[in-house]
What we know:
Elements (H helix, E strand, L loop, with lengths): L8 H4 L10 H8 L7 E2 L11 H9 L13 H11 L6 E4 L2 H12 L5 E5 L4 H9 L3 E5 L8 H6 L5 E7 L11 H10 L5 E5 L8 H4 L2 H7 L3 E6 L12 E4 L2 H10 L7 H12 L1 H25 L2 E2 L6 E5 L3 H9 L3 E2 L1 E3 L4 E8 L3 H14 L2
Parallel strand pairs: 1-11, 3-4, 3-5, 5-6, 6-7
Antiparallel strand pairs: 2-8, 7-8, 9-10, 10-13, 12-13
Helix pairs in contact: 3-12, 4-12, 5-6, 13-15
Amino acid sequence: MSYTPNVPAHIAALKAYVPGLPIDDLARRLDMPASRIAKLASNENPLGASPMAIGALAEAAIDVSLYPDNDCTLLVDALSQALDLPKDWIVVGAGSESILGMAASAWLSQGRSAVYSAYSFQAFVNAVQRVGAEPVVVAAPEYIVDLDALLSAVTPATSVIYIANPGNPTGTRLPPAAIAAFLARVPSRVAVVLDEAYREYLPPEEAGDSLQWVRDYPNLIVTRTFSKAYGLAGLRVGYGIAQPAVCALLHRLRAPFSVTHPAQAAAVAALQDRGFLAESLQMNAQGRSQLYQGFDRLGLKYLPSSANFVLAHVGDGGALARRLETHGLIVRPVAGYGLPAWLRISIGTRENNARLLAALEQELQ
Length: 365
């Protein structure tokens, strides 16, 4: 006899997150060595992790019978120094997605609403739905967040506005001056969550001074991660930046012991490995140009990207993704974002980018 859990409607309607296909799964299906599978689906760093972070993991004395430092003291100290911010302006979580969820728990409930752009990061959608709030989705002309439209959508019920810059899965960005002007117009009772998971890939002149924005606006929360440019996706470390009253609130909502000791040690070391970060950004820029040139040659439409992936228009994204799997290539269909004709393709090594382009040429003939 089947059992249906008696849960609220907004929970029953939740959809499970569908990540990129695991490498080992496809390797077994194809009877192919895992080393021949190129995963270009989850925006991971093709260089791997920072060597300094790997060294810190190897040297960390880990007693698995003990809980990790709940306050992430060493990591908060390192971030405070790197960002030139007081320690009580920083909250660490298990990936930046956990901070996005904390903001939803703090500001949202049934009867309240959150505003975000079409084609927004799925974590925004899920965070809002988990707390039973109303999502207000604003159109995104040319796949770019329309800041004026976000403001126009604010009502007395609005408690949170979510923005990602650069956006995921679009890769598009907003000019810093536009963000600054937007923040000045948002009612102070509305929290703004600015997700900067891909900030490192922006040139400094395009990134904007989000730390100054946090100083200026007590209703702003900036989220960042070690999963992308720093190559620590498997360790789940992210952080939020906000004024002390907001950080104190988020700390009360944070799951205890959510960031392991190894993850904290690796993140501290990764912050110091500027050479690895520079190499990662250079590889990304070169790989992005390689994909652009290949897509142009194939006649594929794509969105110019400010991140470590490119969104390409391919027809039936899901069907093409399945065909690419037969070549040992994993890419990300984005029908769940309302983009069924597109694929999000992470920028890989030069070799894997070339493999992808060759497979596309064969499959799109």
